[in-house]
Design goal:
24% helix; SRPBCC domain-containing protein; Alpha-D-Glucose-1,6-Bisphosphate, Chain A, domain 4; eight-stranded antiparallel β-sheet; 162 residues; ASHA1/2-like_C; alpha+beta; START-like_dom_sf
Length: 162
């Protein structure tokens, strides 16, 4: 399993997931740069993602939804703030109200930093989410973000091997 560590810190308002992939940084980067590849791993198993918009560039927007086994759709977005291919990208990640991808003010938004470092031909990845408050972080923890994100990240190995 690629996920090697998960830490949440209510004082620093962060959730940090680290993972190691048996593939070069450039190959791992392609997973995020290609919406069709990203769809195969973004949602946890049983909740496939569909990216409606995908612009991995500063100022870009990525709109997507997850579909549950009961065919319910959960809408979300990324507002991309910085891209330094293939080492890192940053974005604001939020929940949307519906297919209009309007931010849902009832749900927390997080600032995300995804970093990829060469580990001798493999990739060491660090995924850091920072929330505005301890309450916001606790809300997503209660929703199962650790389990869902870990399960999604762990799917990347199969994609890299294919």
């Amino acid at each position: 399993m690629p996920v090697t560590d998960v830490q949440h810190d209510l004082d620093s308002l962060t959730l940090t997931i680290t993972a190691d992939f048996a593939a070069p940084v450039e190959r791992v980067w392609e997973v995020y740069a290609d919406p069709r590849q990203l769809e195969r791993v973004w949602g946890p198993p049983g909740f496939p993602a569909t990216f409606v918009d995908h612009e991995l560039a500063p100022g870009g927007r990525m709109n997507y939804y997850l579909t549950s086994p009961d065919d319910e759709k959960y809408y979300a977005y990324w507002d991309v703030t910085d891209v330094q291919a293939p080492q890192r990208f940053t974005f604001n990640d939020g929940f949307a109200l519906d297919e209009s991808f309007t931010p849902n003010p009832e749900m927390p938004e997080s600032a995300q930093v995804y970093s990829f470092a060469d580990a001798g031909g493999a990739t060491h990845a660090t995924f850091v989410a920072t929330y505005a408050s301890a309450e916001a972080l606790q809300q997503v923890l209660a929703m199962g973000v650790v389990e869902g994100a870990s399960a999604a990240i762990n799917q990347i190995d199969d994609l890299l091997a294919s």
